[in-house]
Design brief:
The protein is mainly α and about 80 residues long. It is built from two helices and no strands. α1 runs antiparallel to α2 (about 35-80). It is rod-shaped, with a radius of gyration of 19 Å.
Length: about 80
């Protein structure tokens, strides 16, 4: 953990999740313009699912990086004692 590939993987996951989050929000806004109620329901719930999955895709790397930095900081403080 903490290698160059690990950082790239987490950064890429976060960026792709942000792109899907924006796409989901745009889709959610566009669903309100639909006239057919069945199309509205399908588009609304698919956009909501896309937003929820994207949020998890943003939170996961953030927590991984936070955990890594917290352990690194604890090691530094342990050596300073």
């Amino acid at each position: 953990m903490g290698s160059f590939i690990w950082w790239i993987k987490n950064a890429l996951l976060g960026v792709v999740s942000l792109l899907f989050l924006t796409f989901g929000i745009v889709n959610l806004g566009n669903s309100y313009e639909l006239k057919n109620p069945f199309e509205f329901v399908m588009t609304f719930f698919s956009a909501s699912l896309m937003i929820m999955i994207s949020i998890v895709g943003i939170i996961y790397p953030a927590l991984q990086i936070y955990s890594f930095l917290k352990k690194d900081e604890a090691k530094k403080n342990e050596h300073n004692l």
